[in-house]
Amino acid sequence: MRGGADRGCRAAVTQGVWFKGRQFTAEVILWAVRWYLMFPISYRDLELMLQDRGVDVDHTTIFRWIQAYAPELEKRIRPHLRASNGSWRVDETYIRVKGRWMYLYRAVDSRGATIDFLLSAARDAAAAKRFFRKALGQPHTANPRTITVDKNPAYPPAVAEMKRDGELWRFARVRQAKFLNNVVEQDHRRVKRLVRPGLGFGGFRTARRTLAGYEAMAMVRKGQVRGIGGRDMRAQAGFVAKLFQIAA
Predict the structure, then answer these.
(1) pLDDT class of 179 with cuts at 50, 70, 90
(2) Phi, psi of 193 (to 5 degrees)
(3) Phi-psi region for residue 168, left (φ > 0), alpha (ψ -120 to 50) or beta?
(4) Are 244 and 28 in contact (CB under 8 A)?
(5) Does domain 83-201 have CATH number 2.40.50.100?
(6) 101/228 Cα distance (integer angstroms)
(7) Is 5 exposed, middle or buried (CB count within 10 Å of its CB: 0-12, 13-18, 19+)?
(8) H or E element in which residue 56 lies
(9) What confidence tens digit (pLDDT) does each residue in 46-105 have?
(10) Partners of 97 in the beta sheet?
(11) pTM above 0.85, yes or no
(12) Taking CA atoms, which of 105, 130, 182, 218 is between 20 and 30 Å from 190?
């Protein structure tokens, strides 16, 4: 009797408290979440892929998994990232949300490592400042030496105000040079490929949570996680499982 109780306890630990009450195992859920966030597939495509593996799950359930676990995944990955360098490349791209175009602020460093992102309804100095504050608050970032941007006129006044208020290093230099921003513009294409199968988002909150997952798995696949290779899928799966305190 004692052995049966111990086995039940171990199973509960393996499943993890984050998956308590779910109809499917943590392994299945995390597999689906990782694949959706890594590859340009629709929820219905992933439903068929899971059926092929003997798992009968509706695409609406997969959607709920993404909304529940994508932002949590991004939050848990952050402390494990290698430090980014001080050369920031900042740009915005367009994302359709509920039939409207929104602005996705994104920044990478000169090596292409993701720094941060912010979805915003506006494209102005206030939005730029919100983005910079969010980026500076991440554990793998530090005050930049240079901030390379495009010709968006909102950036210089935003940086000047943040320098004046002591939020940015006063010697940080803003460079408005489009050709130097090719690295972040190329990185936008990955996000666009992932968004395309879903034909846009049905709401701001849905978009923000899904995009957090896209960015999180991009950091993993870029090799930004300490000790995890960008092409080592097994190590990545094990790392994600450990983040949620379950056995891989």
Answers:
(1) confident
(2) -65, -40
(3) beta
(4) no
(5) no
(6) 35
(7) exposed
(8) none
(9) 999 999 999 999 999 999 999 999 999 999 999 999 999 999 999 999 999 999 999 999
(10) 100, 201
(11) yes
(12) 130
